[in-house]
């Protein structure tokens, strides 16, 4: 029978198994002892099962309203809907760390299950590194963040969950985001294992890439879901606020994107080995750093668990061990990593190097803007803020050349290329971008918005052109083009789709810079004009909810006298937490969002007035549609048979060649 005691015992057992998993296989790999190395998969699967039991025990305590568990008493209530009792398990610090550990355990079990084609020593080392990282997080759970801690006497009812988190989007946002964060632990483990072994080659690049792509897909979806939550739950009408915690997820996404592209070069040309290993270390290190920032109390954010700096000290120590140890190993082994295949500056490898430079520059800018305020506060006791103007002014000039070279890169040959033949193939895409720029000058205001819109259309058109060239569209019969399309590797199609998704997102961002909004205070029956629409407040009524009461407005929107939609924005009051939230009403036709928010009620009962926030957001859905297309492109690449089958077994090396290929 599931219980908090069983969950705590299972967590302690998982910690012991993780420690053994982190030590025994490493000893076996160093001694070439097949029996010790063979223990790694079983230990990883055993740790995952123990963590699964622990996590299910916490869910059971939440569902059965066991308020003798402090975590449940502080974050749940009898009246809370069942969905949020379950998802609320990871809507707090203790539960989210247990979820992190569970996903890390799943990653180790996945390597054990799907890494059978790996050399036994490499597989053992990868699983061992994952076990050592898992040990740190499970010790964190047991020592400073115990999700099963009891309280006595147990209250009759809990305090309830933060009302902002009682939303389906945010309920599933943490597992997806954490899978992206933790998923990069696998490329990190491959990098550490390769440094220990002293060998990075094409086979290693092919083994790393699927794990990096899978983590990148989850992280992309997680970031997009968090952005969508900000858009329709917070009621501010925006989608991204350069919040420090938002930036903490963007930073590993940027380096993870660079990692995927570097791994391709290692696989195809055995070049950029140092780049790839360092990016694998950096991406997971940034994922861990984001966890530290959210839980240390350093950052002030609506997303942060800033309630116990002592927990931040533990994570800071874990960061020091993981990041410091991995960088020390990298510094020791890096001189032995030979450069590999040579290539000309104008080549696909050259384009990918430029891609990495720009992505890492963007990462450095975002990291600087995020960490500068807390460091200034810590060192000089000065309170400053770095917001949207800084990030827009510094990131867009770096992003624009990145978008431009995204069009060229996939069409350049490996090793050496000539630019003119590629330009000839892209003439139609260039015309599309030029026309888009001309239209943007007429429709958009602001130089950066115009350039971003043109760059977005260029990326989309170049992606389509790449597929058209590969299928010889309009140059051979349609049936032949279709046959060639069916024969194309899915990784190539997935790459084009992901790049097009980037263009669609950027187009949505450029259009959103032209959004219109108005804040008004009106009585019932008043009509306001915004963006050519008539917005009429028809009624405001009180309605009960599962664990709240709501003030619901009826907002009628017309265009040229024709009824477009009836919207029902609301304001919810949660009595148990004494908090109020907004429930935004959004009507979309995929080209624009009509967005309404109900604010405070003022005046006497006989003639009340209500605050309304009205927005017209052009192409807003395209931002999240583009992110989903990006993730779909990555998933399609993962389905490529070359990814699933993996690389062939390495040839046995002689003792003299055990350094680096």
TrEMBL record:
The keyword Metal-binding is annotated on this UniProt entry: no
InterPro entries in the record: CcmF_C (IPR032523), Cyt_c_assembly (IPR002541), Cyt_c_biogenesis (IPR003567), Cyt_c_biogenesis_CcmF (IPR003568)
Cytochrome c-type biogenesis protein CcmF C-terminal domain: residues covered: 316-641
Alphabetical GO biological process terms: cytochrome complex assembly
TM segment ranges: 6-27, 39-63, 97-114, 126-145, 176-196, 208-230, 250-267, 274-293, 313-332, 353-375, 395-414, 426-442, 448-468, 488-512, 619-638
Domain Cytochrome c assembly protein stretches: 90-296
Subcellular location: Cell inner membrane
Subcellular location, principal: membrane
One of the record's GO molecular function terms: heme transmembrane transporter activity
GO cellular component: plasma membrane
Membrane-topology annotation of the record: Multi-pass membrane protein
Keywords: Cell inner membrane, Cell membrane, Cytochrome c-type biogenesis, Membrane, Transmembrane, Transmembrane helix
Family listed: Belongs to the CcmF/CycK/Ccl1/NrfE/CcsA family.
Role, per record: Required for the biogenesis of c-type cytochromes. Possible subunit of a heme lyase.
Protein name, entry field: C-type cytochrome biogenesis protein CcmF
Protein species of origin: Acetobacter fabarum
Organism lineage: Bacteria, Pseudomonadati, Pseudomonadota, Alphaproteobacteria, Acetobacterales
